[in-house]
Amino acid sequence: MRGRDDRQQPGLPVGGVYEWYRRGVDLLQGGNPAAAAQLLEHAAEAEPASRSVREALARAQFDSGRYVEAAESFRRIVEANPSEDYAQFGLGLASTRTGDLRTAVEHLALAAAMRPDIDHYRAALRGARAGLAARK
């Protein structure tokens, strides 16, 4: 990530990408995901290839109820690195919330297969499978 840029551009938060990221993560951890998402969107625009920025943004979007956007952010991580179990899990959860249970089951199954030791991955997969079965 790029550091501080002392030439402040109009419409951008104060600081550089790293400061935006850190403040965004602090806001997310402090229970303010909507504000975190706004800040992290700037960081993701400036550093679109940063996995850590994209993951924090996806979490903030998810926690603020922006499930379609969260799914897209998690999808970008998965496309860059399919072995990211947390991104697979996030994509699955976000897809569950949007009602796309087929996509949810696919990605939750991948996450659970990659990390069978994580109980909440398996629980989310069971829930998505049950929801899909109930629709049939």
Question: What would your notes on this structure say?
Answer:
There is one protein chain. The chain has 136 residues and is an all-alpha fold. The protein folds into two domains: 1-65, no CATH class; 82-136. Helices cover 73% and strands 0% of the residues. The chain contains seven helices and no strands. The chain is elongated and about 50 Å long. The protein starts with 16 loop residues before the first helix and ends with a helix.
- SSE order: HHHHHHH
Topology, number of strands: 0
Distance between the termini: 46 Å
Quickly count the helices: 7
Helix/strand class: mainly alpha
> Average pLDDT, to the nearest integer?
92
Major sheet, described briefly? none
The parts where pLDDT drops under 50 for at least 5 residues are: 2-7
Q: How much helix, percentage-wise, in residues?
A: over 70%
What fraction of the residues are assigned to beta strands by DSSP? under 5%
Rg from Cα: 16 Å
Shape field: elongated
Topology:
Layout: H1 17-29, H2 33-46, H3 51-63, H4 67-80, H5 85-98, H6 101-114, H7 119-135
Helix pairs in contact: 1-2, 1-3, 2-3, 3-4, 4-5, 5-6, 5-7, 6-7
Question: Which key terms come to mind for this protein?
Answer:
mainly alpha, 136 residues, disordered N terminus
